[in-house]
């Protein structure tokens, strides 16, 4: 059962997620009255939310507590699941599973996973949440023969953790391609944004410890909530393992 402080935090975060960046939530006194809590408890929660980048506190006659959606940082140098990098930045990760199925792969998926038209793939579509707010829409595909029973697992957490614990597979590296796209009406509705809003499309092929492709995914991250980070290496730096660096290629959409 959550503590009173955690319950207060959840209520304020819910109001932040339902609001618009820049909107004034109220003064400290008004919020204490609204949530029927003490000023000391409220200040403790507000300090944590400010540190996480979810609010701005402005001093002065026209000041108060304002919504300031923080950007989630996605480090392209690491092969980790969404829950791991959200937790490392202080967010509470969440997942909504939209659909699952086993079907025939298209030509792009066959090439990415090194399978044939006679093979089948497991397809999992999910929405990822940070503190209850949608940040990405992901579609992950796996070779069905390699992962029997995958759809019977709890799919609300890290799929990489399931692959490692149940199938002994470790994600060793990934090839990713990033491009800027516009949200379709359906994608916008799922992510809680306006149609044609900016999205970052990350197309990824993940390889296991035997350097065999094990996942092909298409992740759409909200452009207003996501920042990409990458470690680049110059010729003046001694060689590092291949997994320590990454590159980003931005591509303009035709038309």
Automatic annotation (TrEMBL):
Keyword set, alphabetical order: DNA-binding, Transcription, Transcription regulation
One Pfam family here: UTRA
Record's signal peptide: none
InterPro entries assigned: Bact_HTH_transcr_reg, Chorismate_lyase_/UTRA_dom_sf, Tscrpt_reg_HTH_GntR, UTRA, WH-like_DNA-bd_sf, WH_DNA-bd_sf
Domain HTH gntR-type: start-end pairs: 1-70
SMART domains membership: HTH_GNTR, UTRA
GO molecular function term, any single one: DNA binding
A GO biological-process term: negative regulation of DNA-templated transcription
Name of the protein: GntR family transcriptional regulator
């Amino acid at each position: 059962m959550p503590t009173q402080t955690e319950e207060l935090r959840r209520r304020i975060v819910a109001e932040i997620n339902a609001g618009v960046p820049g909107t004034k939530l109220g003064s400290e006194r008004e919020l204490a009255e609204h949530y029927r809590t003490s000023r000391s408890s409220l200040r403790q929660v507000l300090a944590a939310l400010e540190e996480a980048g979810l609010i701005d506190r402005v001093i002065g006659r026209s000041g108060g507590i304002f919504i300031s959606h923080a950007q989630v940082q996605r480090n392209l140098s690491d092969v980790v699941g969404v829950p791991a990098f959200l937790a490392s930045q202080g967010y509470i990760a969440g997942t909504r599973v939209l659909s699952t199925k086993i079907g025939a792969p298209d030509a792009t998926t066959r090439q990415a996973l090194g399978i044939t038209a006679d093979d089948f793939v497991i397809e999992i579509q999910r929405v990822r949440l940070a503190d209850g707010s949608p940040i990405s829409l992901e579609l992950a595909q796996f070779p069905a023969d390699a992962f029997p029973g995958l759809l019977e697992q709890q799919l609300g957490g890290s799929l990489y953790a399931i692959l490692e614990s149940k199938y002994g597979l470790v994600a060793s590296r990934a090839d990713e391609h990033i491009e800027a796209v516009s949200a379709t009406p359906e994608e916008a509705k799922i992510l809680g944004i306006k149609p044609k809003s900016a999205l970052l499309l990350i197309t990824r092929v993940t390889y296991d410890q035997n350097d065999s492709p094990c996942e092909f995914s298409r992740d759409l991250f909200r452009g207003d909530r996501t920042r990409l980070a990458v470690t680049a290496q110059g010729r003046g730096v001694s060689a590092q393992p291949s997994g320590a660096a990454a590159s980003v290629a931005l591509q303009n959409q035709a038309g």
